[in-house]
Amino acid sequence: MYWNKEMETIDRESLEKIQLERLQKTVVRMYNNTKFYHDRMDAAGVKPEDIKTLKDIAKLPFMDKRDLRDNYPTDTFAAPREEIVRIHASSGTTGKPIVAGYTRNDLDMWSEAVARCLGCAGITAKDTVQVSYGYGLFTGGLGVHDGATKMGCTVVPTSAGNTKRQLMLMNDLGTNAVCCTPSYALMMGEYIRDNGVDKSNWPLRVGIFGAEPWTEGMRTEIEALLGVKALDIYGLTETVGPGVAMECIEGQHGLHMWEDFFIPEIVDPETGDPLPDGELGELVITTICKEGMPTVRFRTHDLTRIIPEPCKCGRTHKRIERLKGRTDDMLIIRGVNVFPSQVEAAITGIPGIAPRYMLIVDRVNNLDTLEIQVEMLPDLISDSVREIENLRMTVKNAIEQILGLGVTVTLMNPNTIERSEGKSKHTIDKRKLL
Ligand SMILES: [Zn+2]
Questions:
Q1: How far apart are CA 148 and CA 185, in angstroms?
Q2: How far is the CA of 145 from the centre of ligand 1 (A)?
Q3: What is the Å distance from ligand 1's center to 223 Cα?
Q4: What protein residues have CB closer than 5 angstroms to ion ligand 1?
């Protein structure tokens, strides 16, 4: 089911013509409108007019999450403030979030991308789509919402949470498609299994799941529990949000990236050298339609490969394989990006606390949990239970404020958190996702 057949099945030559024009325009916009990228291009000795072919993209300097942090909040914006009509945000590597600005054209492009993704799942304007992603600064809720509205679907914006009511509405309204994180989908499935939910009117047939890594094993479980085809969607705040790439229901293997909006590259994570299609490496994305906050050669730190074979659905846009992991230490917990460095920033300077910590991630009843162990300083340990509990709450509040996520904090005795030689290890991920 194509949303935009002409563009989704466009021949490579015409597509590349569009890509080159849009890439050149984006580079001019970045060079003229953002100081940090202007300086970086100057330092690399490259001018906008040097981009004559698509291969010349390799001449351009990379961007990283750090650029968005260093230029917080809005110095990465490449459009005047009066043209920015929406702000979203996600976690950065330390205390400050990554802020993304969208012009009206950006929002139109985004909903077009999401509408194509819904089409990949066989969804049409006749369907009822329940958006169970969180709404707010997180891109999931509003991103999918706008795309489904553009398609003409009946949108039910339940947001995440309140599973009982969520499932009641799903049944009573005859929801055909649900969009949420895969872990929440599993939770809903288990709720149905364990609570005898009324499924007398249950036309749910497809689920679009993303914003965190998941596995084929989770797919099988979700499909069985919810009675749906489960499909993978990809995106990140820095490139727009969900909708950058999507698995089609026909192939259910690999995610088509909308190449008239985004240019994918796979590079060697160590050297940054481009790798040929088919080889595993780090995904780098250039947005070629964005105005508010374009990203040029953005290092996603996601490991994947481009599937060179054509897809049986007939779409000509390249597919990336399901993500294989990360090249950095970012964790995705309940859809929220978490970096150990954020925890470090949060606890630094709290009296009585040592800069020693460990993040322990687990999945309990299909919900991600995060326990943070923090060491106390030996000479400041109080023997008052109340004082220790106060200290624990101070640490918990400081961390939660930075992460935007509920955590369990355990205060540890001095010298109990494992030390390691060289690069210290700050995370234990027990979820075995990948
Ligand atoms: Zn396909």
A1: 19
A2: 23
A3: 19
A4: 248, 251, 311, 313, 315
CA gap 116, 3 in Å, rounded: 5
Ligand 1 mean position to 248 CA, how many Å?
A: 5
Given this model, what pLDDT does residue 394 score?
Answer: 95
Q: State mean pLDDT over 25-51.
A: 98
CB of 304 within 8 A of CB of 323? yes
Give the pair of three-digit tokens for residue 66: 């750090």
Residues sharing a CB contact under 8 Å with residue 148, sequence separation 6 or more, in sequence order: 114, 115, 118, 123, 129, 131, 155, 179
Strand partners of residue 89: 99
pTM: 0.86
5 CA distance to ligand 1 middle (Å): 12
Residue pLDDT, tens place only, 302-338: 999 999 899 999 999 999 999 887 888 888 888 888 8
pLDDT of residue 349: 83
CA-to-CA separations, 121 to 80, 92, 159, 207, 229, in angstroms, rounded: 36, 31, 20, 8, 9
